[in-house]
Amino acid sequence: MGLEKMSSTLWFSGLIFLNSLLLCMAAGQVHYYDFVLKETNFTKLCSTKSILTVNGTFPGPTIRVHKGDTVFVNVHNQGKYGVTIHWHGVRQPRNPWSDGPENITQCPIPPNTSFTQEVIFSTEEGTLWWHAHSDWTRATVHGAIIILPKPGTTYPFPMPYAEETLILGEWYKGDVMAIIDEALATGGDPNISDAFTINGQPGDLYNCSNGTTYRLPVYSGKTYLLRIINSIMNEEQFVGIAKHNLTVVGSDGAYLKPINTNYIMITPGQTMDVLVTANQSPSLYYIASTPFADTTAPFDNTTTTAILQYEGNYTVPSTIPFPTLPAYNDKDAAGNYTIRLRSLASKEYPVNVPQKITKSIFMTVSVNQIYCPNASCAGPNGNRLSASLTNISFVTPQIDILQAYYRHLPRVFASNFPDQPLYYFNFTGDVGNNTIYPALATKALTVNYNDAVEMVLQGTNVGAAENHPMHLHGFSFYVVGMGSGNFNNKTDPESYNLIDPPEVNTVGVPKNGWVTIRFIADNPGVWFMHCHLERHASWGMDTVLIVKNGGTSATSIRPPPKYMPPCSKS
Known about the structure:
This protein is mainly beta. It has helices at residues 3-27, 176-186, 331-338, 401-407, 534-539; strands spanning 30-44, 47-54, 63-66, 70-77, 85-88, 113-120, 126-132, 142-148, 162-171, 195-198, 215-218, 223-230, 236-241, 246-251, 254-261, 264-266, 271-277, 284-292, 304-310, 359-370, 384-389, 392-394, 439-441, 444-447, 452-459, 468-472, 477-484, 503-504, 506-509, 513-520, 525-531, 542-547. A six-stranded mixed sheet has the order 10-9-12-17-14-15, with no helix packed on it. Strands 21-20-25-30-27-28 form a six-stranded mixed sheet. The radius of gyration is 24 Å and the shape is globular.
């Protein structure tokens, strides 16, 4: 072969290789994980019990990817009952089949079987998490998802020296499944947790716990990225570090304009990316997490701690400094923090807030009661505790809604969830007996592909009013407005932030207040929407958003995988 021909051949081969490399980089890498669900013994709070875990750890393993990657997780259920796994905040474009909520997009994975889920990352970047989505199994079955910038790019803030994940969790001395089963049987409140945890450890303030308190080692002068996840079942949290300022730079897999603060408020389901610089005298400093609970409902009013531990030689203090955090019912502190969050909205990380709305939804959020004859239940007035969206308490079907929708199965759900309440009243005032008893139904809210959706979530004073962290599967959305009292559709939109609103997947609806979110319905499928306070979700504070297919295969739900876990009545 002549040199000229060989040179041409090598050039052509190199071009093919380069194009393949660029295509691979654009499509992202593929990763494989094995999740083994099994019972494992742990000793905490002076006693030993068996809990359901993934791969024998609490919290579970971390999934680590770059933006745009794909992960295949083979879930092997070696536990005692059916379970599903949800990838919280991952949009899963056109792929609701692997989203995970039980009897919404799939039926449970039966014991002694396996199910492979395809987790498709697209626009997310930052910190998300995964958790079980069956009954209350997520109390012990959860872990972090870390989404790094694409190769060749970096963070929109100075590179930290190191990073660490802090998962806020909790510990129940009793069997978690038995706790919720008993509550649902009697109609009363479920038992509260016995301790909160940071990375699985309760911390110094609980019995039999100070020998295992989680410690975060740091070097003087270095800056660390803390990925904070609230996996707690029923309590929002204030978090701070003694004598150290926090710089919040991200939330729910999206970047924020940096804000400096001495505490954060994080709801169940949310994540926060926080920078902290070790700029104090070398010593030990408490990291503390305490509940925010502006409610008359029972809650765990204890404090979990970890220790920020400087490396080097120094005299250990006799008393470790403790952060000053807001009181458990400081609604203003929670609200003042939340309203400071703003999207980065830069050239590299633009926002796309819908301006011309084609679908408007007004949805009320309430805690309710179901009447029990002869006052035979354990809730208020001898009734059963319930919860609702737009006064409809969601009834979970026996066949998953995605299958029913895709296969046109009758009598599984109705697609007539209303765009607004059937009647209006003073939602946040003296509600009297208005809508104390909800309708019980399995209803889905349907929108067209590419609708520009505005949804107002209105908290009510029905039942025990409190802050409700609402989570929407399949989407991130922009929080364009928030306020107290009843939403006014004439004046409140004048205060909307349409320039740089935060883009999140979970938002706290203020106690007796409202939140407005906007998003483009560009992800066809069946997507669960629910309160991330687990007791409220168990009582029916849920619905389903169905986004219809677009006009092409590329804008339609993907076909189902060859195997889906069977439904008992399908």
